[in-house]
């Protein structure tokens, strides 16, 4: 009954997310299903498990969200984001707006910028690019998710994203583990994702869909004459500073969160100074920027809180033990167990950690190549983790002014279906080659 209830709780969360229910009431409702079917103490489940997850995420990420949202607001109100968008159009043309978002997001995440920061950095630019190309805004979720949660998170050699870091701590591997396999997987992920996004772009255009701004957006910010905008060079400076500081100071400032906050605050300050005369109501910009951070962090906090509650349910432990008991080829055991647990927790790094805490010694003693194991389970972690209850997707969907119903399928294909296919193909290929 507990196992059925846990699955039902996740199903309730996904179903009502599609119905447009907010993350907080949604996770409280889904949590109630898990609590009652697992015969858990109601008060303890909410006051300890749920709130511990909520508070821990808030504590870990609020300063990142606040500094990132402030940066995004300065870039938007100054016209710098629009100037960058126009420069991308000059370089690549309006027809390549989807590719620009895909590659720009990939470049930022491969440079070490986390998904939670990339959303704020790219969103204002997305609005201009998609408006000029007249591409439905809902497709932007697919491009943003593909650029941040596929090959730069799991397979590109050397990526500093957490999903690629976790296996090194358990398997004794490096961030560049299995470079040939990594490159093959990355190329497959990129080509298939981009081909799909282009197909969707053409299909939506044929259906007569057009770009529209999110409710409450000041469209006039994106209608400014180009001669009134700041120069592209000036506009790029804060963004370049973010990338430069995160890459250049990562060995000096070991605390990655502190480094990100420092980079975002520095970039925000630069954006303000460089565009001092263009930001007319500075107090309003600061208030709206920081206020936006509160709204943006609420959804992922609630989803992570639900995940914490689920992980404390008796049925979760039973499912984990069942999944980890699979007696198959070690590569199959590794990828299958990682994918399933990542799917339940809605977290690639969380699924990897739980799997490796239990099976790492078994993997090491199996005779399998640990570098290949590292790469396969990292790719597997980046598949089912992006089901509709993923905290990262809740953030992207809410910040872009979208809903699960009108946009999730684009992310579902690029971050669930495509990585799953690539993982299966790579695993079969490795086994057939006897590696």
Automatic annotation (TrEMBL):
UniProt key word Iron: no
Cellular component terms (Gene Ontology): plasma membrane
InterPro entries cross-referenced by the UniProt entry: Glcn_transporter
Residues passing through the membrane, by range: 6-37, 49-72, 97-130, 176-197, 229-247, 253-277, 289-311, 331-356, 408-432
Presence of the UniProt keyword Transferase in the record: no
Keywords: Membrane, Transmembrane, Transmembrane helix
A GO term, aspect molecular function: gluconate transmembrane transporter activity
PANTHER family, per the entry: BLL7963 PROTEIN (PTHR30354:SF7), GNT FAMILY GLUCONATE TRANSPORTER (PTHR30354)
Protein name according to UniProt: GntP family permease
Organism per entry: Clostridium bovifaecis
